[in-house]
Fold each of these.
Amino acid sequence: MPRLILSSLAALLLASGITSAAPTKTIKVGQSPESVCRGWGGKLYVTMINGDQPGDGEVVEVDGESVKPFAKGLSDPKGIVFVGNLLITSDGTMMWKIAQDGTATKLVEAKDFPAPIEFLNDVAVAEDGKSVYVTEMSSPGPMFDPSGERKLWDLDSEQAKSLPAKGCVYQVSLDGKVKQVVPPGNVALRFPNGVTVGQGASDKQLYVGDFFTGQVHVHKDGKLQSVVSGVRGVDGLAVTPDAIYISSWNQGKVWKFDRKTQQLKVVHEGLTTAADFFYDEAHQQLIVPDMLAGTLVFLPVK
């Protein structure tokens, strides 16, 4: 492409607020990767939903370009984190803890929660380093408009107004104790997905994104306060002192919210389904699973 056209295109992207970062690499990891984190020896661990059969889900280990099975026998694994020398992942109505040898044992199951569980999703390490937050998204089906692929009902539609508000957030200790942190019933958080704890000594607070409305909230003094809006399909979420990074599963985009200027912009688009990424601070990148493409995409951030 001629340099003049490239320069004009770059100017257009900047004017529109889109500064699409080119991936440093893309790795094929298998069928339906959902979430990723770093674990033992800095290796990456990825939850793989795989097919629809119970027990066909797994966690794979990514070491450089090498991808190999690590923990098998899961069903529908979603969020994953590394804490207390264990991998913790959600799986439908239960959670697993996975040891360094790949052995998976139940951490909690539906009966351990104080209310019925439908769809445990994203997981984040809590401030104490001895427990995790997990979002109970509730059944996601009702929020999708069947007239389009991965299409959500319009926010002002009658269907949107009739959606339930069952979503909530739990805190689960590494020894299996459960408590509810954000209760259900709040229309601002009907379908919570992405969850994280703010980084930096002054911001150890819980942040959670609502998939349907596209709002990100901070949980402060027992209340939810909206800090970002306009990113429907919130999946991955990371909060740094300077920025909030958000992936949109159904839009296939990654966004950056500048906490100083309060500006929201797309930093990468063109993914099929941008799932629950890992904010890799040491390497200044986001590692984003593209679920339907079956890949990990490495995006530089500054």
Amino acid sequence: MTYQAVKIADRVYWVGAIDWTLRDFHGYATGRGSTYNAYLILADKITLIDTVKAGFEYEMLARIASVVEPEKISYIISDHAEMDHTGALLTTMERVKPEAVFASAMGVKTLAGQFHGDSGIRAVKDGERLSLGDLTLTFMETRMIHWPDSMFSYLPEEKLLFSQDGFGMHLASLERFADEIPSHVIEYEAARYYANILLPFGTRIAKVLDKLEQSGILPEIIAPDHGPVWRKDIGWIVGKYREWIERRPKRKAVIVFDTMWGSTEKMARAISEGLREAGVSVSYLPLKTCDRADLATEILDAAALIAGSPTLNDGLFPTMADALTYLKGLKPSHLLGAIFGSHGWNGTGADEIRKYFDDMKIDLIAEPLKVNWVPVWGEGNDDERGMN
């Protein structure tokens, strides 16, 4: 099979790899796979922006070879040291033998730790410019978006921003541009990526967006390290990031729960019906069929989180502990909360949820609702059986 580069600007090509089978990343479900994006700049000093995950280097090098001999690459830029972008870096360096490899100062340290030694990678500073001969790259540190080493690279002659993990998504596709993919898929996967990867760093992202505006950088193309390239609707994706950062919740509640013998599920169904009758949009997430990443995604525009669990071994049901531990790490903000659960001889499952809510600073609207054994589902149905 011949892998071909895709032209994304006059002198820039996408030369990355498509991972059709990826289904888990950072613990979040990636049902549509992903891409590991690398970009080739055809300047006097031919430059490669990032590499790919280990095992995909053959695909990247084949795409490069469809444009130019890989050995003609002069520079490699590592915008982000995470191994889905640098797993193939050493292999590529050995093959290409570039004049120089550049990363942020923290990137140099991170890569030295990952590669167990000094690989001769040079550090660049925030705001530093690198001449590629007839083109120029400008670097902008974006620390903790979402690793300490992260940085953007900007190619002013093409008005093209290489945004590493910013503005990306996990989406395997043969289409290279966001405008070629159905808008509902783009909006969902962009939101899912932000919620599961970038949510804890909203304040920092806001400062980076402000810094871009103040610097006069107005990209016409944004090329992230995952997912499609943005060549249209730049204002839309930047606006969505502003919206997610500012937490503009809808009149929406997320109900997340698990159940042992159906009792907690009956409570969840009753709560969802009551909310619907009150005009509240409900996202209903039974953990037997939903994923922790679904929870994070739905929280992005929700006003309230309602969590329910049976009690197991004097504690929280394992799937709820998993989901809430994951959500806690993402640091959601400005949520109202409610807790429910059924139990047999003690109700500590609901109490354990409260500890998570306290840690996440979720404001409870009422005391936890606990039902001993089996709740009554409507009038006249008290003969229904089930437990926890």
